[in-house]
Amino acid sequence: MTTASPLLTLETVSRTFTLHLRGGLRLPVVSGVSFSVLPGECVVLGGPSGAGKSSILKMVYGNYRCDGGRILLRDGAETVDVARAEPRRILRLRRDVMGYVSQFLRVIPRVPALDIVTEAARETGVAAEEARRRAERLLALLNVPERLWSLPPATFSGGEQQRVNIARGLAAERPVLLLDEPTASLDARNRAVVVDLVAEKKAQGVAVLGIFHDEDVRDAVADRIVDVTRFAGARAA
Ligand SMILES: Nc1ncnc2c1ncn2[C@@H]1O[C@H](COP(=O)(O)OP(=O)(O)OP(=O)(O)O)[C@@H](O)[C@H]1O
């Protein structure tokens, strides 16, 4: 079931980078960023390279500090402002509320691919057997050959690693999902799988906020595109 109240709301969020190695040069990237994402909705950040799409996603995930504004994330009955939350609170939000899938796989060395994905599902409280079943399903859907499942992904091809990464990101059950170009180097067949998996998440009521450079993927998953150039920092500074 979906409800009308957003899971994620950005209110007049701004960020300026200060380049200390360039004599403190200030680079206003975004300002006045305001939008929200409903349960079951996929909002895609649009705009040219350098517009600030990744920076917005990183602020939502708590990787980048906000200079101003609020990032309101619903955690059950509570609403938390990520922009002001303590680091420990942000870690809890990452465990329970928001998942993040980038285009790169960063994992502990020597852990087999299947365990990486199973463990991701376990993190959100899925029972061991179900987590394993889910991991196997995702790896199979994403065309990761079964002979690789028991191996650590360090030696996998770039595309294989990326698909393990997507399986890991989607195995968990969190109400908010942030996708930072997860399909960047996938072939058409696997891009289509990701489109289906995002649709599955939406049907489960997950609020998805993503960046997709591939226009076909973007058009297939987006309910709404938020053009980030509207929030260009330089204009508003
Ligand atoms: N940590 C940082 N320090 C300094 N400048 C940064 C930092 N992160 C991003 N920027 C700058 O902010 C601007 C926006 O970058 P961002 O990666 O958010 O853009 P983007 O829209 O996601 O671009 P792309 O589509 O190319 O990934 C760029 O000019 C970039 O150089």
List the helices and strands and how they pair.
Blueprint: E1 8-19, E2 25-37, E3 42-46, H1 53-61, E4 68-75, E5 78-81, H2 87-96, E6 98-101, H3 113-123, H4 128-141, H5 158-171, E7 176-180, H6 188-203, E8 207-211, H7 215-221, E9 224-227, H8 233-236
Parallel strand pairs: 3-8, 3-9, 6-7, 7-8
Antiparallel strand pairs: 1-2, 1-4, 4-5
Helix pairs in contact: 3-4, 3-5, 4-5
The chain binds adenosine-5'-triphosphate (ATP).
Keywords: ATP-binding, Lyase, Nucleotide-binding
Protein name: Phosphonate C-P lyase system protein PhnL
Pfam families: ABC_tran
What are the defining features of this structure?
237 residues, alpha/beta, four-stranded antiparallel sheet, 9 strands, 36% helix, globular, binds adenosine-5'-triphosphate
Main-sheet strand order equals 6-7-8-3-9
| SSE order | EEEHEEHEHHHEHEHEH
Give the class from helix and strand content and strand pairing. Answer: alpha/beta
Percent helix: 25-40%
Shape: globular
Spell out which ligands are present.
Answer: adenosine-5'-triphosphate
Radius of gyration: 18 Å
How many DSSP-defined strands? Answer: 9
Strand content: 25-35%
Mean pLDDT over all positions: 91
Largest sheet: 5 strands, parallel
Q: Detail the poorly predicted runs.
A: none
Q: Gap between N and C termini, in Å?
A: 41 Å
Total count of helical runs of at least 4 residues: 8
